[in-house]
Amino acid sequence: MTPRAGSTPRGADAVRRDARHGLLHGARLNGASFLDARVEGADLTGASVRETSLKPVLDDRTRVQGLTGTVFGPASLEGSGPPRELAGPELDEWLNNRGAAVQVLHSRTGPA
Do the beta carbons of residue 33 and residue 51 sit within 8 Å? Predict the structure, then answer.
């Protein structure tokens, strides 16, 4: 899944997709579903999200500078240490400390 900059995959479904190193720069991912998607090293620079469902696998190479909007978590973080889940405030902090301006919403299916 590699939308071109400025594309709008409304309701796009990236369930169990491999988007590692994908170029999602500037994409509008409103209502998209990234459940169990591999986005390590993907470029989400300048992308927008609105009520986008996340449960992706991220790493420190995933670029989120300028990512804006709202997401549902959680996400898995993999890399140099053991994998860990990021949800709620932890996911919010991870994204926003890397230049995103994203609000993590309470899960649709359970507590944040």
Answer: no
pTM of the entire predicted model: 0.77
Cα separations (Å) of 21 from 41, 44, 81, 95, 101? 5, 10, 20, 17, 21
pLDDT single digits (tens) 39-68: 999 999 999 999 988 788 999 999 999 999
Give me the phi and psi of 21, to 5 degrees please: 65, 15
For 2-30, give one letter per residue: b (16+ CB within 10 A) or e: ebeeeeebeebebeebebeebbbbbbbbb
